[in-house]
Design brief:
By secondary structure, this protein is an alpha+beta fold. 53% of the residues lie in helices and 20% in strands. Helix 1 (2-30) packs antiparallel against helix 2 (33-69) and helix 8 (309-321) crosses helix 9. One of its GO terms (biological process) is phosphorelay signal transduction system.
Length: 450
Amino acid sequence: MASRNFYIQMIIRVLFLTFTALVLAFSVSKQWYFTLGISAVALILLVFSLITFLNRTNRKIAYFFDAIKNEDFTLRFPEGVTIESFKELNKSLNRVNGLIQEVHVQLQVREQYYQEILKQASIGIMTYNDKGHILFANPTLEQLLDYTPLNHIKQLKQVDENLYRIFKNFKPFERKLFQLTNEREQTQLALKSTHLSLDGQSLLLVVVQDIHKELDEKETESWVRLIRVLTHEIMNTITPIASISDSIIKYYRKGGKITPMAELEESQINNTLKGLEVIKEQGSDLMDFVQSYRSLLHVPEPNKSLVKGKDLLEKINVLMSARLLDGESEFKVFCKPEDLEFYIDEKQIGQVLINLVKNALQSVEYADNGKVHVMAGIDTNGSKYIEILDNGPGISPEMMDEIFVPFFTTKSEGTGIGLSLSKRVMQLHGGNIQVRSIPKKETVFRLTFA
């Protein structure tokens, strides 16, 4: 409506200007000097009026946008003016101003809501730019670092020099663990970074979490599992020894007195010999068990070198293919790219792969169309990996948390330290081992290298 009235007034003014210009031209040709003077004055007044009319509208719109830019929503244009076009324009500007004010208020409320969530979050959150200026740090982070206020990452030098270096050299999507020590306590921090872009400015968002409690809980849980397995294995060995020893003692002691040799029967002596043989066998088993435990605790530091992934997998292929019979399971290795290299201890990782592949082949031994594939490659994060996939019966969710516990096994033979040893080797390499399984469909063990 405002635009329509504006256009009408513009057309009327332009028509008056055109008519006055024609009268002025006609007066010049006829030399009507009186008419010429009046038309010249009228033309000047009409031009001045048109300029004033346009400037008044432009000034209102300019004031309006300046007020919006400065977030000043108190600007109001009078709606009681006599000129209808200005009245409608003022109403429109006031209406738009009200809508923008309402949106601005909603955004402020939402921003305060999110700010409050970040402040109350149980994890530390910080954002800083390329120059190290901290744009936001929530109270939890300041409490974790025992430093406030945080304005620049250089202030972290006063907390810990090594912590400052981590923040200074942090790259997007990196994960770090850091132990912060002060006069009061030691805090185990987990740090994770994410890249952000705000108003064309590159920012780094770092999330800091105190995982000391979680580590304690995991450590306690691991000890409980280990002790449960150790107790089970030791009791299985000790129980027959105790039972047989008690039976043998009854042969040679009656009523608290030692039985004379003359009263011993040949069957008792034979049973004693057999019992001692069983005790010896059980003792040997217990010694093997302890030796396995020692081997788990004394894994040597990796002697790393560059190893071609293709050559590594070919060796595994040659070693493990010999275990297959014609027409049995399918076993294949893949390496992409072919020039992929790993900085590893070849003997240790080779032993890990042999153990995992052997387990995979055993799982598909009785499966129809069983297959085991070993694949090496680079994931989307740039990390190198090796995966061992099989389509055997899989691992149940109940077993998933137990398979890496030392001495835990579902097999009738074996010590149960293979996966635990593999996990320890990967930790010494700065990597990790993960497993996912869909029972009766597929199981994948993934070795990820730093």
